[in-house]
Design goal:
Layout: H1 2-19, H2 21-48, H3 54-65, H4 70-79, H5 84-95, H6 101-142, H7 145-153, H8 157-216
């Protein structure tokens, strides 16, 4: 009775494993397509991205510090080479020059957090490839080996060869998708960390200028 129960469970696990083969292959194909599209998007971003270095940051901070009013501060921001989304953050902070200092800092913190969340959402997409690509590849490797080894037991070399080819192909696809995702995520995280560092420095400077002007009653 125990042997029969064990055979039933073994056959059930075999059916479950084999039923996952097609979904795993489809997921791997989707990962490969997404990896190629992500690589194209990454290269476009890389070659179109203008570097806002320390000298440009210093120049913008000085221009903001010497501004006579919020309108002039906003103009310096708009004329800078900052990314559009970061310009919107700074302009929104400057446009709220009439509220209290603590409220303005709370708003600035929230806006920066939204930028961080936006960058995190972008990198999480390729992080999925890094985590799940090799996992799906491993599943695609192991699932065909069961029927392949069974075929070997009956002397069916052709079936074993086909199973091994499929196993190797899924492994390669999973590793390729994961490798592309890793490279893209690594570079993007570095870019976005630099962008956030620059934005944080300019926001602090902007808030300081607004606080001083508010204390003096300049606006």
């Amino acid at each position: 009775m125990q042997i029969i129960g064990s055979e039933i469970l073994s056959n059930l696990l075999y059916l479950i494993a084999q039923s996952l083969l097609i979904p795993v292959i489809l997921v791997l194909l989707a990962f490969i397509v997404y990896a190629v599209l992500s690589l194209g998007s990454f290269l476009t971003e890389k070659f179109s991205k203008s570097k806002f270095d320390v000298d440009k940051t210093e120049a913008l901070i000085r221009a903001i510090s010497k501004s006579a009013n919020p309108e002039e501060m906003a103009k310096h921001v708009q004329d800078s080479e900052l990314p559009v989304d970061q310009k919107k953050v700074l302009v929104k902070i400057i446009s709220n020059h009439d509220i209290g200092s603590k409220s303005r800092r709370a708003l600035a913190t929230k806006l920066i957090e939204e930028e961080e969340l936006k960058f995190s959402n972008i990198t999480q997409r390729t992080d999925i490839l890094v985590r799940l690509g090799p996992t799906m590849g491993l599943m695609g490797t192991l699932i065909p080996l069961g029927p392949g080894l069974s075929a070997l037991g009956t002397g069916d070399i052709n079936s074993l060869a086909q199973a091994l080819i499929l196993a190797f192909n899924t492994t390669i696809a999973g590793l390729a998708a994961g490798s592309v995702g890793f490279i893209i995520s690594r570079y993007r995280k570095k870019w976005y960390a630099d962008d956030l560092s620059i934005l944080d420095a300019i926001v602090d400077s902007t808030l300081e200028v607004l606080d001083k002007c508010q204390e003096k009653g300049s606006f």
